[in-house]
Write a structure and sequence with these properties.
Helices cover 48% and strands 8% of the residues. The chain is α/β, with parallel strands linked by helices. A five-stranded parallel beta sheet has the order 2-1-3-4-5, with helices on both faces.
């Protein structure tokens, strides 16, 4: 029942929000948002376990698939779409599915979240398989589209992760792991795009960032595997290359161009003094871990 869900309760702190001025509304929302990080922190061990599952799937040729409806689905699609430019990952590595399809990203599709058969069709169209990981996102913990997707993924033999913001939920029964940051009632009753939405995005950030770091997409906190698709990213690649190698800008530009914009290849090419082809091979042997290539200089291919 909806009336039993934490996210559907009335928040006493905001019961006079319509009488507040703009500053008071901002201060109220900020005070409520300050509670989100603590709720997410309570789920740290489960989030870490989920990262391990996802990273293992990536290394075995699997994918991360997000599935949700409404705001939950949009956040999954958003997080998936941010991975290729950030981590130079192929677009098919992290995929976001939303009930009702692409049109649902900007329009409410009536009844889509209640259609369990849509989930199976969407996963079949994606050729979902046991090597993949499915993260079902449902703030309420009761969305039929998400529950059906998790059940189907388990039948396929895949690992399943649930993400919800309600302790009493139906997802835990069909998922291997359940991440549940309980953020409490919203400032506007039932508007889960607020605290629940923020908590969801925080967890999704951790899942993809953590998994990408584990498979070697960063060196320290630098995005060394980024894809230079615009002027800002080209500039960032050059700055990182120059910092690593002490090359002057013009030389760094030439090296990056010779390495077809692949920053990690350029760094190995310069730091190890090897050809671009050998640099690529060294990275391949190390499963893309730049630190391993640079610190194990005795490695050969």
């Amino acid at each position: 029942m909806l009336d039993r869900l934490t996210t559907e309760q009335r928040n006493p702190a905001s019961d006079q929000i319509d009488s507040m001025n703009s500053l008071e509304i901002v201060q109220l929302m900020n005070a409520e948002d300050a509670k989100i990080a603590a709720a997410v922190e309570q789920e740290a061990h489960t989030i870490a376990a989920a990262i391990d599952l996802i990273a293992a799937a990536f290394l075995q040729g699997g994918r991360l698939v997000y599935m949700g409806a409404g705001t939950s689905g949009r956040l999954g699609v958003l997080d998936a779409s941010e991975c290729p430019p950030t981590f130079n990952s192929p677009p098919e590595l992290v995929v976001g599915l939303i009930a009702g399809g692409k049109q649902a990203l900007t329009n409410a599709i009536e009844g889509a979240e209640d259609r369990a058969e849509f989930a199976v069709a969407d996963l079949d169209e994606l050729d979902f398989r046991k090597e993949d990981v499915l993260v079902g996102i449902a703030t309420s913990g009761r969305t039929p589209y998400v529950i059906a997707g998790l059940k189907y993924a388990r039948e396929k033999g895949a690992q399943t992760i649930a993400l919800t913001c309600n302790q009493e939920n139906q997802l835990a029964a069909v998922a291997h792991l359940t991440i549940c940051p309980v953020v409490g009632p919203e400032v506007v009753t039932g508007s889960t795009r607020l605290k629940a939405g923020t908590a969801t995005k925080m967890v999704l950030n951790m899942l993809t960032t953590g998994a990408m770091v584990r498979i070697g997409k960063t060196y320290g906190n630098l995005m060394v595997d980024l894809r230079a698709t615009n002027k800002k990213l080209v500039e960032r690649s050059l700055r990182i290359l120059m910092a690593f190698t002490k090359l002057p800008r013009e030389e760094a530009e030439s090296v990056l161009e010779a390495c077809k914009g692949e920053l990690k290849t350029a760094i190995v090419h310069v730091k190890r003094g090897v050809s671009t082809e050998t640099a690529c091979e060294l990275l391949k042997v190390a499963n893309g871990h730049l630190r391993q290539v640079l610190e194990h200089t005795e490695d050969t291919v």
